[in-house]
Write a structure and sequence with these properties.
By secondary structure, the protein is of the alpha/beta class. It folds into two domains: 162 residues, Ribosomal Protein S5, domain 2, CATH 3.30.230.10; 226 residues, P-loop containing nucleotide triphosphate hydrolases (Rossmann fold), CATH 3.40.50.300. It has 21 helices and 18 strands. It binds zinc ion.
């Protein structure tokens, strides 16, 4: 048996959205046959031993007779997952002189092995591929990860279907199935009927959604059950442009970290967790760092229906991600940060009884209503720019509207065009959407607006505007001006913006 000293095989481990380089050494010592894996290897890594042994034997290789010691370095980093199967197998083949790995120093290997040597996909391949290409290394991975990997532009990536094809490739035999990931054909998008066009009436709410889309604002809807809040929320993504290449890659990386593949990478994410969701599932966490709903909604929409039914503690945890665009998860073993630049769309009923009150008129006492609404904290509500009422539509009016086919303000493609034009104007002017407009830039907007002092003073007095509310109104007014393609904010914009802050949350009925 060859016992020459050979260098380590390199691999990657994804932790959160970072992937660390791991080196794998193998030493075959004389003595009783056996295999030991050292270097803070957890569950699935320890089981690697049996998978690798079967895969090697079933592909015509010898499993060394001595004591096989595998060392995963650095030793202070906890290692989990099944991605080390392939590099461990290669380290054993190399140490026992059965295979020579060309360009070993500049190549990284990752993948789970089946008992017959087939390579199985791993979670977090995008994170690994990005890290490898940043380090100027080649990454060899399972062919089943190809679709995700194809999103990485300019990386040196190879996909292999199984161990024996890979060994043939490494031994420079004839060309085979080991190759660069093929660019994926654009997903054939099924022609979807937009829900937006199906919603009859609710022009106020629709205008709110349009403003939210154009300025990146968060929005809350207040209205009785059956008024169409959920349908409105779902239709919201119809108004948004598809994701850019950069955003698609960011979103896919987050999904890839937990093994979720997106069928259409350019589609805006829409997440609507149930109100029974745990805090960890909402903001992320777990034994291994996992993204929560806020990160899965990155570059898209987080829809929270029946907002007051969520645990207040869970809602409180949303404040920081909304403010910073990041969800930081700190545990004893790790500290990771996931991007979560999402738009919050929330909905709630006017009173706790919901449906039964709708039919017989609200019989909830003022204190019950206040307690119910109070579950949504002021600070969270403060971060939501647009407050929209979704009233129940009168059946007669509804029938009339249906007859006239008054379903929307404008046809959807035109609205989408308006949103994109307004977004581009904001990005060109200030480098961000109006939701993130700095106080200083906002002051400049206020100064240049064609609105008289007397008018503003009256508005503040009449609507009891707090300082925070006042600034929100200016931000919304700025978006309304952008939708009108106006360079300065007009009185009409300001008045319309006031409408989106006019819900009295302490009221006992709406
Ligand atoms: Zn009620």
């Amino acid at each position: 048996m060859a016992m020459k000293s050979v260098g380590p095989i390199f691999s990657r481990i994804p932790i959160g959205l970072n992937a660390h380089c791991i080196s794998i050494e193998c030493h075959i010592a004389p003595g009783l046959p056996g295999t030991t894996i050292v270097g803070l290897a957890e569950g699935a890594v320890k089981e690697s031993r049996d998978r690798v042994k079967s895969a090697l034997r079933n592909n015509g290789f010898n499993y060394p007779n001595g004591h096989v010691i595998i060392n995963l370095a650095p030793g202070n980093l906890a290692k989990s997952g099944t991605g080390f199967d392939l590099p461990i197998a290669l380290a054993i083949l190399q140490a026992s002189g059965q295979v020579n790995i060309p360009n070993r120093e500049n190549t990284e290997f990752i993948g789970e092995l089946g008992l017959f040597g087939e390579l199985r996909p791993i979670n977090g391949i995008l994170t690994c591929a990005l890290a490898s290409s940043k380090a100027n290394k080649r990454l060899v991975m399972p062919a089943q990860n190809e679709q995700e990997a194809s999103l990485v532009k300019g990386g040196d990536l190879l996909v292999a279907p199984n161990l024996s094809e890979l060994i043939k490739h490494l031994s420079a035999h004839e060309p085979n199935d080991v190759r660069c990931p093929a660019p994926q054909k654009g997903a054939v998008r099924p022609v979807q009927q937009s829900t937006y066009g199906q919603i009859i009436g609710q022009l106020g709410a629709k205008k709110g959604l349009l403003v939210a889309a154009a300025g990146g604002h968060h929005l809350i809807m207040l209205g009785p059950p059956g008024a169409g809040k959920t349908m409105l929320a779902r239709s919201f993504i119809d108004l948004l442009p598809t994701l850019s290449d950069q955003s698609s890659l960011e979103v896919a990386t987050i999904y890839s970290s937990i093994g979720l593949e997106r069928s259409d990478h350019t589609k805006v994410p829409f997440r609507d967790p149930h109100h029974s969701i745990s805090s960890a599932a909402m903001v992320g966490g777990g034994q291994q760092p996992q993204p929560g709903e806020v990160a899965l909604a990155h570059k898209g929409v987080l829809f929270l229906d029946e907002l007051p039914h969520f645990k207040p503690a869970t809602l409180d945890l949303l404040r920081e991600p909304i403010e910073t665009g990041h969800a930081v998860i700190a545990r004893a073993k790790y500290r990771v940060s996931f991007p979560c630049d999402f738009q919050l769309i929330a909905a709630m009923n006017p009173c706790p009884a919901g449906r039964s009150c709708k039919e017989d008129g609200c019989r909830c006492g003022p204190s019950q209503v206040q307690k119910y609404r109070g579950r949504v904290s002021g600070p969270l509500l403060d971060r939501i720019d647009l407050h929209v009422q979704v009233p129940e539509l009168d059946q007669l009016l509804l029938a009339k509207l249906q007859k006239q086919n008054v379903s929307t303000i404008d046809p959807l493609p035109q609205l989408k065009e308006k949103v994109i034009t307004a977004m581009n104007a904001q990005l060109k002017r200030q480098g961000c959407l109006n939701v993130k407009l700095s106080g200083k830039a906002l002051d400049a907007e206020v100064a240049s607006a064609h609105i008289s002092e007397a008018f503003l003073e009256k508005a503040i007095e009449q609507f009891h505007l707090s300082a925070r509310s006042y600034h929100k109104i200016w931000r919304i007014a700025r978006t309304l001006a952008d939708l009108d393609q106006q360079s300065t904010i007009s009185e009409a914009n300001f008045l319309q913006a006031l409408n989106f802050r006019s819900i009295n949350w302490e009221a006992d009925s709406v």
